[in-house]
Every structure is written in C-alpha cells, then in structure tokens.
Amino acid sequence: MEYPIVCGKKSLCVLMSIAMLLCYYEYTRIDIKNEEKSLKQLQRGKTNKHSGENQTVVDFGVPIDDAEKRQDVPNVLLITYLRSGSSLIGDIVQQVPHALYSFEPAKQCMERGYYLSRDRGMCYLTNDVCKNTPKNDYGFIMEHFKNFYKCNLKTLNLYFLSRSRQFHKLAYQCKREANQKKCISKLIPVCEKAVRIIKTIRLSMDMVQELMENIPNLKVIHLLRDPRGMIVSRIKAIRHLQYKMGNMSSIARAVCDRYNRDISIGQSLKVKYPNRIKTVLYEQIAQRPLETSIRIFKFLGLQPKRNFKSWLMEHIAGDPKMSVGHPAFSTVRANSTVTANSWRIQLSLDNVMDIDRECSQVYEYTGYLAVKNSTVLKNLNISVRKKNTNFP
C-alpha cells in the first residue's frame, strides 16, 4: 500500500526518500568506541583464584556462578504494545546466561486481538474499544503469570510453556506423554535456575501492580514507541487499518489514550516500588542500542553474555534476507535507526499533524516533538525527539 505523500513525480519521490534515509543513517551511526568502553565497564573479566579460570564478574561484584544461585535474581516483565518494537527489546533482554523467555503466553487464554485491563475489561488492541470480562478470566490469566514466575509449572497449560523458546520442544514432547505433569516436573529445576522473562502486549499497566505485589523480585520494563512510527507499522501489518487512513485522528486517539493511562499508572507504581519499573523508548534502542542495552542490564542487575556486543551489532544491522516475504513481521532489520524513522517518509504532513494533536500529552512525557511543516518532517537530520532526564 502507498501512503499519502506530498510530492511531485513518484520516481523523484522514491529517489529523494532513499537519499534521505541514507543521509540519516550516516548522521546517526553508533559511536562504537564510547559504547564499547561502557560495555567493558559492565562486562569485566577476573581470574578465579582457585581454578585460575577467567570468570566474568557482574558489575556488582558477584560472579555469574554465584549470581545464578541467589534468590534475588530478578524475574522480568516486558510490558508493551502492538507494533512497538517489542520483539527487539525481548531479544536483547534474553541475552543473559540462563534466560527463560516466554513471549505472549496469554495469547491462547484471551480472545484474539485483545488485551486485558482490570479497570476497563477486555479491550481491542487497535481501537481500544472494551467490553466487560468475568472476574474468573482475570484470575485465570494472572495465576498463569504468577505460576510461571514461581516455577509452578505443573499448573500451567502446555501452550503457556510452549511460548518459551527454551521449553518449546520439551512442552511438545510432554504433550505426547500419558503423564503430562510428571513430564513437566522435569522442567522445574531448569526454571528455578533461570532468569524468567515474559514479554506481552496483552496486559494493561493496571494489571501490573498485582504481579508486583505477589512477585517481590519482579522488575518491569515498560516499552513505548513514537506513536507516529507505531501507527505506520500497524497500518502495514494490519489490513483493516489500511482503509482508515482518512480517520487518522481516531487511530491516534486510541493509541495515545492507552499510553496516557499506562504512563500515569506506571508513575504511581514507580513511587510505590522504587527501582522496579523502567520506561524505555524504542527510539533509544534504535539510535543508541549498546548504550541503552547497558542501562537496561544495570537496571535489572544482570550481565549480558560475553558475545553480546557482536550479537547486538549483527542484530541491529540486520540481514535483508531475514525480512524477505514478511518484512512487517521481521525482528531483524536492515537498520533499526532507519526503521524507527521511516514514518517520516511514509506519512503525509496532514496525517502527522492529526497524530500530534491527539498525542500532545504523551509528547510532554517522552520528549517527542510535534512536526510543524514539511521541511522538518522530511529532513531526517532534524530530530523529532528532545532528550530529557528520563530518556537521554
């Protein structure tokens, strides 16, 4: 689908778009030396006096072998939104030793295309229209999350376990066993040693407090993305939204009303549970991936694997072959910075201004800037985000 673009001849438009993206890529290249220095500070190697082996030491002075046995190794919840770049941050966070990562485990427990809000019910992911939900549904879904974090695996259905990449094959094998619970019990020791991570777009922030109360070592990463970029990504991936381009204000209102509610609740939870919630912008990861990743690992009190830097550089740079056929659903991008700013090429000024009007409150918190004219919109060297103390 082609989005409305204020431009003359189509061929000239394409050439200008490519040129601007290339210029922006050069302008925003990662400062490798500075970020490598930061990673080395986080990821130091020390020699074990007893074995003589090189042993990686956590920034807080605890060797990994000991850290794995500590009771305070965090559980992690990544709470985010449809087409927010959440797969990228999910891939980053699980680059720690013994990560047990489950993505969208509530998908099978809910109606397709919905997320759960304690205050509003079951709400549609794209237009935020809600309907009442029985209290039993809340309890069923929340118990599954709690049991995963507590490694009460026998109480989980096999679909929930299969959403973990590490447990996928084992869950499939257990499905064929006559005594499924006995089979699942073999997974418990693995779970107990792991950093347990869930990524979901299907919980509202008003559901998070209950998890934080019940899981004392739970740390929450709340991922936001520039509404303009997220909306373009949704329109590409979801067919029925492609026919609503003329009603951009209503699309933006649904996105930013939910943002505003979750941000407000998140701010309250940060006061109640200090150092247990961190809000991250997708654009921070796209523009400064290593630096932002280091901040995330420090917040979690975890250390990345030894090969993390090389893995990240390859993952962010991407492999164009990875997105052939289904580019909208690819995790690996040709360049994440270009992806984060592609909306500036694909949306018309009128559509951008419609979004800006509906999302002004979100912009105040995040530092995203409204676009005043076509010159600012199409010049990718002009930043549309003002850095602040919350989001450097």
CATH class: Alpha Beta
Beta-strand percent range: 5-15%
CATH superfamily: P-loop containing nucleotide triphosphate hydrolases
For the biggest β-sheet, the strand order reads 4-8-3-9-10
Describe the global form: globular
Organism: Mizuhopecten yessoensis
Keywords: Transferase
GO molecular function: N-acetylglucosamine 6-O-sulfotransferase activity
Domain Sulfotransferase: 75-359
Walkthrough of the structure:
It is built from 20 helices and ten strands. It is an alpha/beta fold and 392 residues long. The protein has a single domain (10-378), classed as 3-Layer(aba) Sandwich (Rossmann fold). The strands form three sheets. The chain has a five-stranded parallel β-sheet, with helices on both faces. The protein has a three-stranded antiparallel β-sheet with strand order 5-6-7, with no helix packed on it. InterPro entries: Gal/GlcNAc/GalNAc_ST, P-loop_NTPase, Sulfotransferase_dom. This is Carbohydrate sulfotransferase 1. It comes from Mizuhopecten yessoensis. One of its GO terms (biological process) is sulfur compound metabolic process.
